[in-house]
Amino acid sequence: MKEKVKSWVLALLVFGSLIESYYLIYRLPGSDSAVMSENLYVKTDNMGPEEKVENLLYPDKMIIHMGESKHTLFYPNTTFYNLILNRLKGRSFESFQRRSVQDFDWDKIRNENPGIELSFGAGIPVTLLQRVMQLSPDSLFEGESIDRIWIYNMKNDSKAHAVFFSTRGDIVYEAAKADLTVQDVQQHVDFGNNLTNYKAVNGDYYVPDAKVSMVEVEMPSGMYTIQQMQSNLFFDAGSTRYIPEKDGSEIYTDSKRSLQVDQEQNWMSYSDPAALPAGDSTPAKDALEAVDFVNEHGGWNGTYRLAATEEGRQERKVSFQQFYGSSPYGSYPIISQPKLQYGVINLELQQGTVSSYERSLMFVEEDKAVKRIVDLSFGERLEGQLAQISQASAVKDLTPVYVPAVKGEKLQLIPVWRVTLKDGTVLTLN
After folding, report:
1. Is 239 left (phi over 0), alpha (psi -120 to 50) or beta?
2. Rounded to the nearest 5°, which phi and psi values hold at 428?
3. What is the pLDDT of residue 31?
4. Where does the Regulatory protein YycH domain start and stop, copy by copy (predicted)?
5. Which of 25, 86, 130, 184 is the most exposed, fewest CB within 10 Å of its CB?
């Protein structure tokens, strides 16, 4: 009889120990914030669909030069932008000749010659650009990254010129053979007739003479769960343990990898310092690896563009910028704010292997968006604002963007001008 009682007592103790272990593992401090109401969270482990790299490679803007110092700008997802880009994708460029950027009078070409300038921001490796354009590069050009393509006509010249700008800044590559006629270029330029005229300032940026209309939007928002991220990023999510941080963030680790969550900014940082390096690394290969990694670990919760492939001391940083908007008003980048990081996916790679992965945990319900049209400042008023700003440092770029803001359980995207100065400072004008 005593043996039976002992057995029952032992069984109860074991059962109690299991219950206690459960609460220690799944009800640790901070875990309540990861399991909120059903209304705030989606049920799938994926944050969005997979994406092909080709859909992430496109110019952030097109500058149409019409001669006589007249210019206009087309942005992604506008009718003429899409039409011109699709046509250029079907044309071939061959026999690239390496030349100094000083060999050209760019101010004269900009103001007197009809042409199309495609801006790729921080640049795209040529081997990736080949995926969306028909290029036949030699080994020298193939190793470059391109931040601009300028296609233009010259007076009394029977052929169109196509120049590709290296991100190095001092070298360009001109295609001796371009499957474009002078008439093709002029037809594309004519799309800019009767549209808003932009004034070129020092050849660096463009100020519109009339209002630029954008869509301000407010959408219901929620947050992906920590459990979803653990499931996406750890081989065995059940083996992770929780470590609270003094700054209020939370860390989950399986002793090799770590997932840090900042609840205030709804931001996650994943680190895998023990990842085995693949060995072979180039900007293009690292960008492809980064796309594959996002496809396999969450997906794409919106429209993104490859923004940069920057090389650090021991790693390469690859970033993807989120765009929002559609025709006819266009699509524009969403820029992060100090108090709200949203609209960008950052990865670091070491020798071809992802070692760091950062992104927002927020999602929005676009089908429930409330929209209204707003106009950005223009003309003399905008020029006056920029002149005052440039007293500290010259203005390098002016671009319409969205600033994200949280309003209760909704996310607002507010249209503003982003002003980039030559010293690297970024400001906004609303």
Report:
1. alpha
2. -125, 145
3. 36
4. 3-422
5. 86
Q: Tokens for 82, please give them.
A: 């899409």
> Order of strands, edge to edge, in the sheet holding 92-100?
134-135, 92-100, 171-178, 161-166, 145-152, 115-125, 61-67, 70-74, 198-201, 205-208
3-class secondary-structure state, position 22: helix
Instruction: Give the tokens for residue 287.
Output: 């960008």
Sequence letter at residue 346: N
Instruction: Identify the domain containing residue 282 by its residue range.
Output: 31-52+225-360
CA dist 395 and 199 (Å) reads 14
Q: What pLDDT digit, counting tens, does each position of 147-184 carry?
A: 999 999 999 999 999 999 999 999 999 999 999 999 99
CA-CA distance, 157 to 50, in Å (whole number)? 46
Predicted confidence (pLDDT) at residue 104 exceeds the cutoff of 90: yes
Note whether residue 338 is domain-resident: yes
- Phi, then psi, of 53 in degrees rounded to 5: -60, -30
Helices (H) and strands (E) in the chain, counts: 9, 25
Global model pTM greater than 0.70: yes
Cis peptide bond N-terminal to 328, omega within 30: yes
- Picking from 382, 425, 384, 422, the residue whose alpha carbon sits closest to that of residue 400 is 382
| Within-domain flag for 206 | no
Please indicate, yes or no, whether residues 45 and 77 belong to a single structural domain of this protein: no
Strands in 4-114 per DSSP E: 61-67, 70-74, 92-100
- Residue 35 shares a structural domain with residue 105: no
Q: Do the domain assignments include residue 13?
A: no
Cα(376)–Cα(131) distance, integer angstroms = 35
